Amino acid sequence: MEVSNKYVVIKHHIEEAPKESDFEVKTESLNLLVDEGSDDIIVKNLYISIDPFQINRMKSFSPSQDALSSSTAIIPGKAIDGPVIGKVVASGNSKFEKGDLVLGVFTWAEYSLVKETSILRKLDSSEFPLTYHLGVLGYGGMTAYVGFFELCKPERGEKVFVSTACGNVGILVGQYAKLFGCYVVGCTGSHNKVVFLKEKLGFDDAFNYKEEKDLSSTLKRYFPEGIDIYFDNVGGKMLEAVIANMNTFGRVAICGATAEYTDLRKTGSLDLVNVIYKRITIKGFIATDFMIHHFSNFMKKTSNYLRTGELKVIEDISLGMESVPSAFVGLFNGSNVGKKIVRLVEDEE
Amino acid sequence: MEVSNKYVVIKHHIEEAPKESDFEVKTESLNLLVDEGSDDIIVKNLYISIDPFQINRMKSFSPSQDALSSSTAIIPGKAIDGPVIGKVVASGNSKFEKGDLVLGVFTWAEYSLVKETSILRKLDSSEFPLTYHLGVLGYGGMTAYVGFFELCKPERGEKVFVSTACGNVGILVGQYAKLFGCYVVGCTGSHNKVVFLKEKLGFDDAFNYKEEKDLSSTLKRYFPEGIDIYFDNVGGKMLEAVIANMNTFGRVAICGATAEYTDLRKTGSLDLVNVIYKRITIKGFIATDFMIHHFSNFMKKTSNYLRTGELKVIEDISLGMESVPSAFVGLFNGSNVGKKIVRLVEDEE
Is A330:A340 a contact under the CB 8 Å cutoff? Predict the structure, then answer.
C-alpha cells in the first residue's frame, strides 16, 4: 500500500539565525508494507519535538559532529530527524506491533521507516499525555533535572539564576529549584514572559534582558547576596555578567548557548581571576550521558510532582507539517513559551 | 634590644605589569624583646616566597578581596606579607621558643613581629632543605598535586597540556603527570626553557608560545589526538585554543591567570558550543581549600618522590632584601624558572 508522505528538509546549510524560507516541506511516496522478520518498522508520526540544538546540525561545519559521533549533520534535501512520538502501523520486528506508541529518533515526516535501534522506548498514554514524553518527561526534563541536581548539587536556600527561563528547560529548572527550596530568578525576553514566570510559575523574581543596559548591574540588583548557581541556556555576555556576580564555590551548568548557536560573535569572555578566586566550576553537559544512572529517579520524582500538581507543564503546540519551519524559527526569536511541539494529527487514535 | 629592620613596600597600587620602581626597601627600628606570656613572637626571616598571585593584592581594586576574606589588599607604604620561612628569635608564646624554624604568613622583612595565628607550622630541616617548604612541599606543590589529582582526576595514558610549564606549579604538574603515566606537553616562553622541559624534566614535548602565530593549530600539531587535561596557569587566548582542541569529557583546572593579572584585555573568550558538546569541565581552585583532607597525602607522596629522586626540584633563588623587587617583576617577564625565592641570610644558623 502506497501513501503520500510529507517531510521537512533544509534547502541549504544554515549558518546564522534560521528563517522559514530555509526549510521546505516535500512529498514522497512510501510503501506501508514491510517484510515479516525484517527489522523494518513503519511509524505514523503524531508529535515532533522542536529543539534549538538542531541548528548545530544544520551548519556546513557542525561543531557538534566533532564531539558527538551520534550527532550527524543534517543534509540539505534529506529529511531532518529528531525526537518524535508515533504509532507503529506496520512492523517486521517481533518486538513491536501495530498500534504500539513509540518514542524515537525519527524523520520529521508523516510516516517514518525506522529500525529498532532508532526507537528509544514504548510509551503508555494512560496516565500522562503523550506529549509529556517530549518535554517534562523527556530529554528537556532530564536536562533540567540532572543539570540542576547532579551538576549543580544545590543546597536549600541557595540563589539560583536561570537564563532562557521561559524555554522548555528553563521553566523546569526554575520549578525544580523552587520545589527544592532555592531562591530563583529568571531572565527572559518580554514583559509578558516576566509576568508569567512570577505569577504562573512561582519564580521569586524575573527580568527582561532586553530592557537592561548593563547586565552585571542588573544581576547585582536581583542578587544583592550573589548567585550560587547559574543554569545557562544562552551563553554569550550573560555568562560574563554572572561570573562577576557569583559567590565563592559557585556552579555553572551549561546545556545550551542559544545566543552563540546563531552568532559566534556573541561568545562571551571569561574572567579567570574571578573563576579562580571564587573557585567557580563551569560544566558543559548533555543529558543523555546520565540516562543509565539517573533516568529512573528522574521519572519517578517528576511523575510524582506531576501527580500532585506541583510541577506545571507548559507546552506550545503548533498543528501540521506546514507549521514546522515557523515553529523551529520561533525558538530563536523569542516567540515560544515552554516545550515547542508540532502535532501532526487531529486525533491520536 | 633595638635592631634596624629592612622591609619591602609598594609605593602605590600596581594595575598592570609590575616594575622594580613600583617597590621600595624601607628601614624601621624594631625592638626584639617581647613580654613573657604575650602572644608576640619575633621571627628572623630566612626565605621569602615570591608568588605571582600577590599582584592581585597590589591593585587599587583587588579582584581577590571580593572573594577571599583572607586575601587583604596590600597597602602602599606598609610592609607586604606572604609565605616566609624564619627562625624564632624571641617568643612570649609558650608553644614557640627561640630557635624554632617556622613557616608562616609574615612580612617581607628581615624581622617580623607575628602572632601564633600567622604561623602555619614548625619546620624540620633534617631531611629536606628548608626552601622546599615554600615550593615543592609548600603551597605550589599542593596546587600542582590537588589540581592535577583531585580536580583533573587523570587516567593513565591521558594527554596533558601545561601552560607556564617552567613556573613553580607547571614544573611540578608536568612531573606528577609523567610519573603517573600521562603524555605531557608544556608551553613556555623561550627556546632554552623548551629544551629544559624536554631534556631535564622529561616532558614528552614542549613549545615556545612566542614563536607560534595560531595557538589552535599549534595545539593540533602537538596533540593530534586531542587534549584530555589542561592545567591552566596563564588564562587568556591559550584557554580558547585549548577548548578548540579538547577531547570529550576534557577537564581544565585553573590555578592562575598570569596573562590576565596584569592586562585584563587579555581575557579569552569561551566557546560554549564546544564546552557543551564536549562536556568540558572548567574549575578555578585555590589549594588551601584542600589542606584538611589532602595535605598529609600530598606530603607523603611528594616526600617519597623526592627521596627516590624521581621528582626534580627547580629553585631560582636571589640573595638579599634588595633583590625582592626584581625577583617579583621577573615572574611576569618570563625570567624565572621554577620556584622563585629570596634568601635573606648567608647561613641558616
Answer: yes
Q: Is the dihedral of CA A196, A201, A205, A206 positive or negative?
A: negative
Residue A56 in contact with partner chain B when CB distance is under 8 A: yes
> Rounded distance, CA A78 to CA B309, Å?
62
The domain total for chain B is: 2
**Are residue A266 and residue A212 in the same domain, yes or no?**
yes
Within 13 A of B72's CA, how many CA atoms are on the CB side? Answer: 9
- CB of A79 within 8 A of CB of A107? yes
Q: Which residue of A has its CA nearest to B234?
A: A272
Answer whether B278 touches A (CB < 8 Å): yes
Q: How far apart are CA A96 and CA B260, in angstroms?
A: 59
Q: What are phi and psi of B266, to 5 degrees?
A: -85, 5
Q: What is the Cα–Cα distance from A76 to A138, expressed in whole angstroms? A: 27
Do B278 and B144 reside in the same domain of the chain? Answer: yes
CB-neighbour burial class of residue B230 (10 A; exposed 0-12, middle 13-18, buried 19+):
buried
Give A264's DSSP letter: G
Beta strands in A74-143 (DSSP E): 81-91, 101-107, 111-114, 119-122
- Out of A56, A275, A278, whose CB is closest to B273? A56
What's the first-to-final CA gap in chain A, in angstroms?
Answer: 20
Both B323 and B220 in one domain: the answer is no
Give the number of C-alpha atoms closer than 13 A to the C-alpha of residue B274, restricted to the C-beta side: 19
One domain for residues B188 and B107? no
The counts of H helices and E strands in chain A are 11, 15
Enumerate residues 6+ apart whose C-beta is below 8 A from B335. Answer: none
Per-residue pLDDT 10s for chain A (349 aa) are: 899 999 999 999 998 899 999 999 999 999 999 988 888 999 999 999 999 989 989 988 755 555 554 468 899 999 999 999 999 999 999 999 999 999 999 999 999 999 999 999 999 988 999 999 999 999 999 999 999 999 999 999 999 999 999 999 999 999 999 999 999 999 999 999 999 999 999 999 999 999 999 999 999 999 999 999 999 988 888 999 999 999 999 999 998 877 677 666 667 788 888 899 999 999 999 998 999 999 999 999 999 999 999 999 999 999 999 999 999 999 998 888 999 999 999 877 6
Q: Which domain range does residue B322 map to?
A: 2-135+314-343
From chain B, pick out residues whose CB is under 8 angstroms from the CB of A232. Answer: 272
Q: Are A185 and A160 in contact (CB under 8 A)?
A: yes
| B279 touches A: beta carbon within 8 Å | yes
Residues A114-149, buried b or exposed e (16+ Cβ, 10 A)? beeebbbeebeeeebebbbbbbbbbbbbbbbbbbbb
Are residue B81 and residue B6 in the same domain, yes or no?
A: yes
Vertex A140: Cα angle to A116 and A193 (nearest 5) = 145
Q: How far is A42 from chain B (nearest CA, A)?
A: 31
- A8: domain CATH number is 3.90.180.10
HSE-up (13 A, CA, CB side) for residue B17: 10
ipTM of this complex: 0.86
In a domain, B349, yes or no: no
- Closest among B195, B155, B203 to B175, alpha carbons compared: B203
Q: How many CB atoms lie within 10 A of CB A153?
A: 12
Q: Are residues B105 and B167 in the same domain?
A: no
Q: Which of A47, A59, A48, A45 lies closest to A17, judged by CA? A: A59
Question: Do B321 and B216 share a structural domain?
Answer: no
